[in-house]
Request: fold
Amino acid sequence: MNSRQRRGVILLLLSVLCALGAFAGVLSVISDVNSKVGPEVTAYRIKGDIKPYTPLGTAQFEKITMPERWLPATAVTDLRATEGKIAVTTLKAGSLLQSDMIVDRPALEPGQQEIAIMIDAATGVAGKITPGATVNIYATFAGERGTGVQGAQSRLIVAGARVLDIGKLTPISDRDDRASSRTEAVPVTFALSATDTQRVAYAESFAQHVRLALVAPGSTTPPDPRDRTYTLDKDK
Reply:
């Protein structure tokens, strides 16, 4: 083998060694990326804005994948975790669904009953009362025949009633002695004791109007018993 051939062999060997070094470098980079990214796992993204206290369903979310090491510990990876849950706050479209965004739907406590009544959409709910809210239930009664306005009164029927569910707007007939008109009402479901359930049922049947007053979150002070009934005479 002459000197030219030896140089060729040496250059060939150097080329092979450089190629092996480059290949090893690529493998090292890939290994480093894999170690930083890790395997991908399933997560869920919110499709559209979800209002607070809205019951959750699988159609509201879309499946995505992302590196496991980048996934928050609170991320929901199984949609079965949303069963029987409601949104605790407004869920924005495109956000990653996490367990601290949802809570259990309000449930009955021992001794409670569910009762649903129709509440005027404009004066009784007005879009501000949602499932999980606490409300005071008021009923207004007309005065006895011959007493007019002076005999009318407003009563606090139930204080601190817990709202379980708000239904859809429903057209109803509003009939009295003078006219018949169409209006809209919302079925509202409450969790109440047996006695309060009877009070609400009585008010829905015999009161002129039943209205809801939203109680501030965290408020636990019951109304003064002297303020449970109001008549115009109190303002004289």
The chain has a mean pLDDT of 80. The CA atoms of residues 81 and 112 lie 26 Å apart. The longest strand covers residues 153-166.
